[in-house]
Design goal:
Layout: H1 18-28, H2 33-41, H3 45-57, H4 66-77, H5 82-94, H6 102-113, H7 118-130, H8 138-150, H9 154-165, H10 181-192, H11 197-208, H12 219-228, H13 232-244, H14 253-265, H15 269-281, H16 289-302, H17 306-316, H18 321-333
Helix pairs in contact: 2-3, 3-4, 4-5, 5-6, 6-7, 7-8, 8-9, 9-10, 10-11, 11-12, 12-13, 13-14, 14-15, 15-16, 16-17, 16-18
């Protein structure tokens, strides 16, 4: 059985570790759990890691057991096996098989980061950026994002763009730098070209705001790339381009509605309001006041924009008390369904 490195997601996407997956597969191969257990009990770090993976995922002939996974990852991590250190840190960070403990997670991320492991470096940078489990330290966050990017982390490149955009970057002497749109765009482009939806959306927004320097065109393409990966904000923005025919896009209300609906189903309030308007006005779809009220109400619930509340109240004037009662039941039953999106 090929043992994959199981890397959980926290606030930012973490990347897989294919090199470690291959290494573990060579050693463990199709070994059954009893043989694996004997090797692990004999002190084999990779076998301990493989057992941890099996228990975490419920594969390899064992039942899913996060506590067992945590224990076997610990045995492997104690021997400085880097994939186990990363997965152990992820379990502490997310409270899987144990109480959530970001301070302990940070210590294991740090141990793995000492080897230049990009997932650990990026995760440690996230903790320093937010001050979760470690003292908030933007300088250290920038340092670890820079290391992670050099070692291949796409997410870290996106985060570097954020820090340059927000005036949170540092020079080689440790002095804080002012906000720099051009430098932010450079890092966003690096991440966007490798499929990071958040970076794609940021570039598109900067270009739309006239802050992307010499970057020309491509807003629709960037939004589409991020939208197809499940990014709800990009889906809404792409829908708006199709509705208005802006940025060289041929107006197509049917396509706009498709993207609005995908974003709205994820809980994106702007898309919910746009979908409400389509139903209220009968734009590209049959006029339907109850559906308009439904989407306007969700938008008003998920956003503080006063116009969304006004839209809801206007649609309510078109409904009977019975229709509002049915709509309220539908609102209570609605659950946002996030797609698999590129992050933060």
């Amino acid at each position: 059985m090929w043992k994959l490195v199981f890397v959980l997601l926290m606030s930012a996407a973490l990347q897989a570790l294919p090199a470690y997956a291959q290494e573990a597969a060579v050693v463990t191969g199709d070994m059954d759990v009893r043989a694996l257990l004997r090797k692990a009990q004999g002190g084999d770090a990779m076998a301990s890691y493989a057992l941890g993976y099996d228990y975490q995922t419920g594969s390899g002939g064992v039942r899913q057991d996060y506590v067992q996974a945590l224990n076997w990852y610990k045995e492997s991590a104690k021997q400085a096996y880097v994939p186990a250190e990363v997965n152990l840190a992820n379990m502490y960070a997310t409270g899987m098989g144990t109480e959530q403990d970001t301070a302990t997670a940070a210590r294991w991320y740090y141990s793995a980061a000492l080897t230049g492991q990009p997932v650990a470096e990026n995760a440690l940078a996230n903790l320093y950026y937010t001050g979760d489990g470690v003292p908030k330290d933007l300088k250290k966050a920038f340092e670890y994002y820079s290391r992670a990017q050099k070692h291949g982390s796409i997410d870290a490149a996106k985060h570097l763009g954020d820090m340059y955009l927000n005036g949170e970057a540092y020079d080689e002497k440790g002095a804080r730098l002012p906000a720099n749109d051009a430098e932010a765009v450079k890092w966003y482009m690096m991440a966007a070209k490798r499929g990071n939806a958040g970076a794609q959306r940021q570039i598109a927004q900067l270009e739309k705001d006239g802050r992307a320097g010499s970057l020309k065109g491509g807003i629709a393409e960037l939004y589409k790339s991020a939208a197809t990966k499940g990014d709800a904000n990009a889906q809404y923005n792409l829908g708006h381009l199709y509705e208005t025919g802006a940025e060289g896009v041929t107006a197509d209300m049917g396509t706009a509605l498709k993207w609005y609906r995908r974003a709205a189903n994820q809980g994106q309030p702007d898309a919910q309001d746009a979908l409400g308007h389509a139903y209220f006005e009968g734009k590209g779809i049959a006029q339907d006041y109850p559906s308009a009220w439904f989407w306007f109400t969700l938008a008003a619930t998920n956003s503080k924009k006063e116009t969304y509340s006004s839209d809801r109240d206007l649609a309510a004037l078109k409904l009977t008390p019975e229709q509002i009662s049915v709509g309220q039941e539908q609102i209570q039953a609605f659950k946002a369904q996030p797609e698999s999106a590129g992050q933060p």
